[in-house]
Amino acid sequence: MDKQKERTFNPTCPCESLHTQKTRHIYFQPEENFWMVMTVNVPTTSSAEGKAYHGDDVQNVVCLAVLKQAYYMARLFLGPFYKLINIDNGDPSILKQKLDHFYNRYLPRLRLQHCDILDVFQGVQFLPLDKQTFLHIQCFANLIESTFADIDYIAFLYNERLIWSGLEPDDMQVVFKYLVTNLLPAFHELEQQSSTKSSKNSARFVTGPANLHNPDDNIGKIPRLYLRKIEPEPCFYQLVVYKMLGATICFFINEKVTLTVEMFRLWDAFMSPRLVKVVPLVTEYANKHNSMSSPSEGASRFVYFNRMNLAMKTTIHQDQRKTGNIAVTPQVLKILADINAQHQRMLELGCPTSETVLKTTSDYWVVGKMSNAREFYVAIQHKNANLIEINEEVKRICDNELRSIFFHV
């Protein structure tokens, strides 16, 4: 490597992207001796003067997050890449074959045009409950684990929001992403297309036997997930998912356990009568909470992320389907990611707190705060407001939506 290249690619300062007029190359080293590269075509517009390239529309922070997530998802199903290399001769054929099969299915569902700051955070959306209701859920989960020895961990979701998880946050982060963007939407779509639609109140295994009353022993296809934060060592777990009354219960069972239809029947008989009593408590509290916190038309919108527990809360997005269903302009959404990138640079320089306030040409005020391992972004559409009024509005949102959070900036 010549001196010019050494200055350009400093080994002590990793190169994460390469910009050209037509493309953007994003680099990520997920494991030792393994690199992943994503190439994105820069958007263009044509006019009488020729073709114009809009490199600013491609955000490095978003693309890098998408590339990392592509690795995390592959690792979730395949395990670490190095374990798929032949230890005798270093042959990568098996790894290539498995990655080709995985990404041929993964990439068409990526929807890169709708990726934004939520992809940067990859957070988990929790459903906050009062202490008594949460205790009911916790006792339910503990009862299952103590009754069925083969079930090592449990996660409990309601309307695609997490209430309880026995997994470590890093593992649950990737599993949650798989559940809410892939497994559960595919299940709901299949149910809608089915000629024998099941009631929302009926109980059914999402992964497992389609019909517990069939005499055959076919348990269907059970996903195998690689969990890293497991003692004594990382390994694969079978994921069994059960739905009833809007609740989703996930069982994580070691891959060495042989599953049978009889086990599913026992789980169903145990959970169904108990969920009939527990879930309505969650529904009642969630409905009350949603009616109080639902933003009105034209209201201020925000995104909150906690790096400690990976919790995320947003009113900027209407759902998690990546269909472009957002409550702010694309310009504002892009600015949020730009502010986040700036704050991350400040963090790398040793500054753990920062605040950014700016106003757009479309009369949006955009505020970004970072402090105490938490990030908070607000978009306020108020043409004639001043900085004092904007600061008061941000404080009001913090008090109403994030009561226990203290931002010291």
Brief digest:
The protein has 409 residues and is an alpha+beta fold.
Total E-strand runs? 16
Coarse morphology: globular
Taken together, the total number of domains comes to 3
Distance between the amino and carboxyl termini:
44 Å
Structural class: alpha+beta
| Biggest sheet details | 6 strands, antiparallel
**Low-confidence residue ranges:** 1-7
Average pLDDT confidence is 89
Level of helix content? 25-40%
Strand content: 15-25%
The succession of helices and strands, N to C, reads HEEEEEHHHHEEHEEEEHEEHEEEH
So, CATH architecture of the largest domain?
A: 2-Layer Sandwich
CATH homologous superfamily grouping of the largest domain: Dynein light chain 2a, cytoplasmic
Number of helices: 9
Characterization of this structure:
The chain has three domains: 3-110, no CATH class; 131-293, 2-Layer Sandwich (Beta-Lactamase), CATH 3.30.450.30; 301-401, Beta-Lactamase (2-Layer Sandwich), CATH 3.30.450. 37% of the residues lie in helices and 23% in strands. The protein has nine helices and 16 strands. It starts with a helix and ends in an 8-residue tail after the last helix. Strands 6, 7, 8, 9, 10 and 11 form a six-stranded antiparallel beta sheet that branches. Strands 13-12-16-15-14 form a five-stranded antiparallel beta sheet, sandwiched between helices. β2 (23-31) and β3 (34-41) form a beta hairpin. It has helices spanning 3-8, 60-78, 93-106, 117-121, 131-147, 169-193, 261-293, 330-348, 387-401; strands spanning 17-19, 23-31, 34-41, 44-47, 50-53, 153-158, 161-165, 204-205, 224-227, 235-244, 247-254, 301-306, 311-314, 354-359, 364-371, 374-381. It is α+β, with helices and mostly antiparallel strands. Residues 8-79 form the CCZ1/INTU/HSP4 first Longin domain. It holds the Pfam family Intu_longin_3. This is CCZ1/INTU/HSP4 first Longin domain-containing protein.
